[in-house]
Write a structure and sequence with these properties.
Blueprint (H helix, E strand, L loop, with lengths): L3 H84 L1
Length: about 90
C-alpha cells in the first residue's frame, strides 16, 4: 500500500505551483499599480507647477490692470479739475 504522504505530494506540488503563479501575477499587478501611481504623481506635480505659474501670471496681470485703472482715475480727476478751473 502507498503511504499517505506520497499520495499527497502531487496535490501539494500542484497547490504550490498555483500559489506561486498567483503570487507572480499579484507581483506584476503591484508593480504595474506602483508605476501608474508614480506616473500620476508626476502628472499631479506638473499640473501643480503649471497652476502656480498661471496664478502668478494672473496676479501680475491683475496688478497691471489695477495700476491702469488707478492711472485712468487720476487722469480723469486731473481733467475734471482742469475743466472746472477753465470754467471759472
Amino acid at each position: 500500500e502507498e503511504p499517505v504522504g506520497d499520495r499527497e505530494l502531487p496535490s501539494l506540488q500542484l497547490t504550490y505551483r498555483v500559489l506561486r503563479d498567483e503570487n507572480n501575477v499579484l507581483r506584476r499587478m503591484v508593480r504595474s499599480m506602483q508605476s501608474s501611481l508614480e506616473s500620476q504623481a508626476r502628472t499631479v506635480r506638473s499640473l501643480e507647477r503649471r497652476l502656480k505659474a498661471s496664478l502668478v501670471k494672473e496676479e501680475r496681470e491683475a496688478q497691471g490692470l489695477q495700476m491702469l485703472v488707478q492711472q485712468a482715475e487720476r487722469s480723469l480727476q486731473l481733467m475734471t479739475q482742469r475743466a472746472l478751473e477753465a470754467e471759472s
